[in-house]
Model the fold of this input.
Amino acid sequence: MQPSRAAQLRPIGESDLPEVGRFLHEHMNARIPAESWARAARPTWAIEAPNHGFMLVSDGRIVGAHLAFYSERRSGESVRRICNLAAWCVLREFRFEGLRLLKTLLSQPNYEFTDLSPSGYVVPLNARLQFKPLDTATALVPNLPWPARPGRVRIVSDPAEIEPLLEARDLDIFRDHRHAQAAHHLAIQARGRSCYVIFRRDRRKNLPLFASILHVGEPALFAQAGRHVFSHMLLRHGIPATLAELRVIGGRPWPSVMLRAPRPKMFRSEALGADQIDYLYSELTCVAW
Done:
């Protein structure tokens, strides 16, 4: 049944988040409580965002929502404004209006755009809107219980202990993401050096058995000591396998197998190249599904 009139398109403000959270809980992912949806939509980093995305409203109720996460990222000598396109859900009877949400987000001037979790039908739509794919070649790594090397490699997972080990950019990233719902933090200490790592718990085929690595501060050290991170995932978090994108960690771990069809990620920018796009300050760090 088609609605009798078009829905109103409105920006999502702070006061709208509880209702938007209920809508996404009921119609997109019931595993995430409404309160968690609302809390996740509030970035943990400082930013003057124009909105939290846009929503469709009909007869006083939300019938569609498209979340967005905004950030300002330094690129060389300039600062770029990034809009990460996040959860997008529209009730079936209003699907023909759903594209208004996306086009309104993309019409905002002076932003670069990322879509780091596009569903299957969104990928070709994004391509028609000049989005480009990232190389998401992904190694599936079994998290094996490698023997520890006392005094040689140490995995630090207490945030209070991680912070003093970091400096410069990684310290800023840690402080901005310390309380992000989906971001788990650890640091590798080895040979007098530290490597900051952010990962999230992930699902494949609805099985919550995976960790996905979102950030590696020093890929060279990770290449040498990463197996202890994988062991930590198993022994501390009970996660049997890790999804490691080569563009994030710097190279293929051993042992591992390459996924035949890794999840797509996309971006749209005339100013930034693929090597300047990362997964921080986004839905991937904020929404734990």
Remarks:
- The longest strand covers residues 61-75.
- The chain has a mean pLDDT of 96.
- The chain has nine helices and 14 strands.
